[in-house]
Specification:
The chain is mainly alpha-helical and about 425 residues long. It contains 14 helices and no strands. The protein has helices spanning about 25-55, 60-90, 100-115, 120-140, 145-150, 150-180, 185-205, 220-225, 235-265, 270-300, 305-325, 330-355, 365-390, 400-415. The longest helix is centred in the N-terminal third of the chain and has 33 residues, at about 25-55.
Length: about 425
């Protein structure tokens, strides 16, 4: 996405009728399947890839990890939204979203085997690029469900549940990661296997229909043009995108380097680090759940979103500042609890906010795909600059890294303040 390029395909906004109120069973299955998807994504993101990199290249692990994550995220800048746009136009009888979820799972299994058996950084990098594309394809086909199936009166609540599911997925990822360091194949394949099993239930619960027969077919070049929009024409959506990008940059500094922080500054071994990450994440779940669910419900009832964004960015910045000076597990745990609370609150309300301001609900796959580009953009940029920041003062300068992250995350509140259509 280019924030300063005009939209070559002007979009006519169509106001679709609100979906009927979603039953609890549908919401529960959606949230649990998103939890499994988060588990499949976060196990390699938070632990497995970093662990594999330090096995293959222990001396240059920080730079190598940054390059691998940065290149992968850069590729997904195009691939992620492209999958969303293509799924909008898929006319298979099984639905326009389900086939893409299945394809993504198959790619994850294949690339997981590649990473587990890799003997070089190139193999690890290629495996992670393919894996991240696969999980992006699968989750990208699930994200539009919020805009297509859930009415606006429930989106904050469902967004909160999805946010909690993401945090639970992160805790499971670090716990399982620490337990499976002796079996790399299981480390990379177990999470996606769980996701595949729960998708079977999802496929028979969540309604999916093929794209309407009237949906236009066009050249691939036109699909890429749909990934670009005019931020002046769709100002509020652009601001939501910018806010998510800034928040995610700050959080990516932690998620990418938290294992190395525990190894290098606190002196833990990988197995112990995995257990500590899971323990701290488990403590943070109570806080995360409270902030995410209560924040999501209150944002629906009060019909206000921005105040919760302000609170989330303040919590995130506070946690990152504490983390910058942490010299032991107690301060590390305190910082992560702040950050988990911020992530849960921000994730639930910001997802609802994005659903509220998408310019055309009939093309939810396209717009939600562009929205999630904020994640991949931050994931591409943060790992590139993080090794440079870490080198300040001689190397491994985690204090500078997390202070920069705190300042950047606060920028999300400034972006939210300028949104006009939603309070």
């Amino acid at each position: 996405m280019t924030l300063h390029s005009p939209d070559p395909t002007p979009v006519i906004t169509e106001v679709q009728p609100e979906p009927p109120r979603a039953p609890k069973r549908l919401i529960l299955v959606y949230a649990i399947t998103m939890l499994a998807g988060s588990f499949a994504l976060l196990t390699p993101t938070l632990f497995a890839v970093a662990y594999k990199v330090q096995l293959v290249n222990p001396e240059g692990k920080e730079t190598a990890l940054g390059i691998i994550f940065g290149v992968s995220a850069a590729i997904n800048l195009v691939a992620g939204p492209l999958f969303g746009v293509l799924s909008d136009r898929t006319r298979l009888p099984w639905g326009r979203r389900r086939p893409w979820i299945v394809a993504g799972i198959v790619v994850c299994v294949t690339s997981g085997v590649l990473m587990a058996s890799a003997t070089s950084m190139l193999m690890v990098g290629v495996g992670w690029v393919l894996y991240s594309m696969g999980v992006g394809c699968a989750l990208g086909a699930m994200n539009p469900v919020l805009a297509e199936t859930i009415p606006s009166s429930q989106r904050g609540t469902v967004g909160a549940l999805v946010g909690v599911a993401g945090q639970l997925g992160g805790v499971a990822a670090t716990l399982v990661g620490g337990m499976l360091t002796g079996n790399l194949l299981l480390l990379f394949l177990l999470p996606v296997s769980v996701y595949a099993a729960l998708f079977v239930v999802y496929a028979f619960t969540i309604p999916h229909r093929p794209a309407p027969a009237t949906t236009d077919r066009f050249a691939l070049s036109a699909v890429f043009r749909l990934l670009v929009f005019n931020p002046r024409e769709h100002r509020d959506f652009a601001l939501v995108w910018l806010g998510r990008f800034l928040m995610q940059v700050g959080l990516t500094f932690l998620s990418t380097y938290q294992l190395y922080f525990l190894l290098d500054r606190l002196g833990l071994v990988p197995e112990e680090a995995g257990r500590q990450l899971a323990f701290v994440g488990g403590i943070g779940i109570l806080v995360t759940t409270s902030f995410a669910i209560v924040g999501g419900i209150l944002s629906d009832r009060l019909k206000r979103r921005k105040v919760f964004i302000y609170l989330a960015t303040a919590l995130s910045a506070t946690g990152l500042v504490i983390l910058a000076f942490a010299d032991g597990i107690p301060l590390f745990a305190t910082a992560v609890v702040f950050i988990l609370a911020a992530a849960g609150l921000f994730g639930s309300v910001d997802l609802a906010l994005a659903s509220d301001v998408i310019p055309d609900s009939t093309k939810a796959g396209r717009w939600m795909g562009i929205y999630y580009v904020a994640n991949t953009t931050s994931s591409a940029i943060a790992p590139i600059f993080a090794p440079i920041i870490l080198l300040i003062g001689g190397g491994k300068n985690y204090t500078a890294l997390f202070l920069v992250g705190a300042v950047v995350a606060l920028g999300a509140s400034l972006a939210a303040r300028r949104i006009r259509a939603v309070r």
